[in-house]
Amino acid sequence: MSKRFEIRFSGAGGQGLITAGIILAEAATIIEGKHAVQSQSYGPEARGGASKSEVIISDSPIDYPKATVVDACLAMTQESADKYANGIKKGGVLLIDSDFVKNEPKGDFKVYKMPIMRTAKDVVGREIVANVVALGAMIALTDAVSREAGLKAVLSRVPEAFIELNRKAYAQGFEDMKKILG
Q1: Is 45's pLDDT higher than 80?
Q2: Per the confidence metrics, is the pTM higher than 0.90?
Q3: Considering the domain boundaries, does residue 173 fall inside one?
Q4: How many CB atoms neighbour CB 146 within 10 A?
Q5: Which CATH number belongs to the domain containing residue 15 in this structure?
Q6: Residues 84, 54: Cα–Cα separation, whole Å
Q7: How many domains does the chain have?
């Protein structure tokens, strides 16, 4: 039986979650040699409306490229939590931005809370890297790829001038989630 792992990143359009999904897929395929597909969809209004990016990682070829049973979901906004936390499998995980998702979705999954945007802004220093903080946290939470593969994929995607900022953002998200997990 081949292992298939499905991750959904969701939030507001413009938060960089499509990029986070692409980076995760690249970490899985290019760096770790697994099979992965990434797909995305936007709400009717690309900027500001709910958007999602899904990544399926498998150790064998992927026959169906859409997420069907989500193992892990990230929701950065209340709208994305309401819209996309459905379909998380029994025993799956949901990571929410604790500052923006006040009404926690209920289901047979475990909810983890982290102030992702605030961490990017106040700890890392730039709100724009919230997606990389979130990616680090999701990789720490799921072990979908190794910490090193995730970092390599992040750094291969960012301009030279932003390498340190993104390295810091990724490490912060990863470390904060490991603390939450104890």
Answers
A1: no
A2: yes
A3: no
A4: 14
A5: 3.40.920.10
A6: 11
A7: 1
Give the pLDDT of residue 97.
98
Cβ contact 153:83 at 8 Å = no
Domain contains 104: yes
Helix (H, G, I), strand (E, B) or coil at 146: coil
Q: Residue 16: which domain range?
A: 4-115+138-161
The two structure tokens encoding residue 56? 């399926």
Q: Is residue 121 part of a domain?
A: no
Tell me the CA distances in angstroms from 100 to 118, 132, 141, 142, 143, one per residue in order: 10, 17, 20, 22, 25
Q: What are phi and psi of 108, to 5 degrees?
A: -90, 55
Nearest residue to 145 via CA among 23, 2, 17: 23
Euclidean distance between CA atoms 69 and 107, whole angstroms: 13
Averaged pLDDT, 23-43: 92
pLDDT at 87: 87
pLDDT value for 64: 86
Q: Tokens 């953002």 identify what position?
A: 169
DSSP symbols for 48-81: TSEEEEEEEEESS--S--S-SSEEEEEE-SHHHH
Residue 122 lies in a domain: no
Mean of pLDDT values over 108-126: 98
Q: In the predicted model, is pLDDT for residue 46 greater than 80?
A: no
